[in-house]
Design goal:
alpha+beta; Immunoglobulin-like; six-stranded antiparallel sheet; 31% strand; protein phosphatase 1 binding
Length: 286
């Protein structure tokens, strides 16, 4: 604080300034050194606040060069359009058209599944439930040959006999009974779908020794099993499967051919009505 006192003696009076600091603290004050002011350090943004910045300082020429490497420019597009060529099929040695000649005398070969779908559609149009013809093979002889009274005597005389036969969707399976004349033996089934114009054979596999309680339990026998595959295209009404059995043991062949007539199976079919809820699935998978 400073006190001001003075006397004014007219217009030319003097003014005296008295500082209280000089009265209570007569020591002279040290000179003050100048203070240098530093600018604040640059603040870096936090990872959460950092955002991609787009600077306009990037040279325009560099940006255009990068775009030219990834996308074709106008001149390149025009070059690609010039490279496009049109070729006709006759230039490659092929015909421009295909001609199919139909003769009245020739019956067209229509796939069965196409005919089936046409018939199914016609039956559905008239409100008639569709039907399926399922083919199957049926034996022209008793399927359980071992149940016949003459089976034991026939086995003794022939040394080999068809015992039982089963027809299923997986083919023809059956069992064969042979006399145990030696340890090493072979049983084969020869079969044909063409009335023996062509034929093939399959080897039966050994199953077990003859079991007690059957009609030939007093004989020393072996049981063999065989399987005859039936291709789907064979399953046509009127088709016939024939087979015979050959038993080879000790250098001799013994046959069972159903007394010279062979064992025959004929193909038949039975109709199955398709349920209403299965009609669409049947048309799709047929």
């Amino acid at each position: 604080m400073a006190g001001v006192a003075g006397g004014m003696g007219g217009s030319g009076g003097t003014v005296t300034t008295i500082r209280l600091r000089d009265i209570y603290d007569p020591k002279p004050q040290p000179p003050k050194a100048p203070v240098r002011i530093r600018p604040p350090p640059p603040q870096h943004p936090s990872p959460l606040e950092s955002k991609p910045s787009f600077s306009s300082d990037i040279p325009t020429k560099t940006s255009m060069r990068r775009r030219a490497q990834s996308l074709p420019g106008g001149s390149e597009r025009r070059t690609e359009l010039r490279r496009a060529q049109v070729r006709f099929i006759d230039a490659l040695g092929l015909d421009l058209e295909e001609i199919k000649v139909f003769r009245v005398q020739e019956r067209p070969l229509v796939p069965e599944h196409v005919i089936f779908r046409l018939l199914m559609n016609s039956e559905r149009a008239f409100g008639k439930p569709p039907e399926l013809n399922l083919p199957y093979f049926k034996a022209c002889f008793p399927e359980n040959m071992a149940a016949l009274p003459e089976f034991p005597q026939k086995l003794v005389s022939q040394k080999v006999c068809l015992e039982q036969l089963t027809c299923s969707d997986h083919g023809i399976t059956g069992t064969i009974r042979v006399l145990n004349l030696a340890f090493e033996k072979e049983v084969k089934v020869l079969y044909s779908f063409t009335n023996w114009r062509t034929h093939t054979d399959t080897t039966a596999c050994w199953v077990m020794r003859g079991h007690q309680g059957d009609s030939v339990s007093s004989l020393d026998t072996d049981v063999f099993r065989f399987h005859l595959p039936v291709p789907p295209f064979i399953l046509q009404p009127g088709a016939v499967l024939e087979f015979a059995i050959r038993y080879h043991v000790i250098g001799h062949d013994y046959w069972d051919n159903n007394n010279g007539g062979n064992y025959k199976l004929s193909c038949h079919s039975f109709k199955v009505t398709v349920p209403k809820e299965c009609e669409d699935s049947l048309l799709h998978f047929t």
